[in-house]
Structure of Cyclic nucleotide-binding protein:
Amino acid sequence: MFNQFRNKFPLDDSKWIEYTDCFKRLEVPSKTILLKEGEISKKLFIIEKGCIRVWFNNNGKDLTTQFFFENQSVASIESFMKKSPSPASIETIESSILWWISKNDLDKILSEIKEIPQLRDRFIDMIFERTFDYMKYFVSFIKDSPTQRYLSLIEERPQILQRIPQHYIASYLGITTVHLSRIKSKLLHRK
Amino acid sequence: MFNQFRNKFPLDDSKWIEYTDCFKRLEVPSKTILLKEGEISKKLFIIEKGCIRVWFNNNGKDLTTQFFFENQSVASIESFMKKSPSPASIETIESSILWWISKNDLDKILSEIKEIPQLRDRFIDMIFERTFDYMKYFVSFIKDSPTQRYLSLIEERPQILQRIPQHYIASYLGITTVHLSRIKSKLLHRK
DNA sequence: AAGATTTGATAACAAATGTTATCGTCTGTG
DNA sequence: CACAGACGATAACATTTGTTATCAAATCTT
């Protein structure tokens, strides 16, 4: 699982083994809740196989804000960094194989690798990228109609359309399943 | 203008003078465009007096995403950091007194102060805070109705209600001025 | 102070989106 | 194989929000 990263990091072997030993394997069925809204996020997950969504509960309706697939890492970042209650839940969509690391272990690793300047800068860049991603989401949500957002999904993240059940996609687009059905049917008949 | 920060930074006097000399004063009337959509952001502004909005042009309609007041700093961050065309414009709302620093000068200062660990960590924290702010905006937009968003504005940022013309507020809430009028009138008559 | 511009309210109508209910299909499980 | 539950389409109706137009008040300019 981690060998793909092995030669990207200038660490000696003993450190490398110490770090990778911090990760534990976890196999779970679909619809497993990995973090519940209100809890404090103490684990960072990496997906070996499967997919995961992050969602908010709003008066019983759920609102999905992100999907994650193989090789991506998932946590409720704000909760994870600040030890505050998570505003969102994290849940598997398919049955999945995951690896997780505790916040304690990750903190230790991060404080050590921050001394390596190129990794430190890389880390800062990553945080910026995350910020810019949120900006993009935000702007698209308030600028574009649901139809436009659906079309961009088709263009930019076809994997979502293929693997994710439609009611989660509707929730991701911020609309009801009924409305998503209407959008699809309109697009079909116009062609 | 900068003396309020003087004792927060462990810099010797010559460095302090060198750094503050990088800032230039600028006095502008209202509705001055400081950065145009599509341009590359090369200046970071700090507001001594006045207020500023950041907005996107979407098919002629504008969509305001942020307001800034006294003592806040403003730039199209993504454009500023990555030297990419800015997706947003920056414009004064009131006539304003500003201080600005060029990206070159700021980069020089940042690379120097990053060597001071506590400032470096502070800088990383600031970036995280910015990320969390965007998350909050984003979530509120997709979770709450315009009426709820308007009520939160009253609660959390009354300054905006007092100083900002209503059509910019409507644009900030993602609705038309007509609809904002309706919301206000409904709230009034219900009380 | 007169006229122009900006700002905000309101009404009438149109378009987008939500709600509820029904039905058919698919899929997994016993 | 049968059946329950999940998933998706569609219709009818309700609600929200946008569009266009008009008017009044406030503010700015000269």
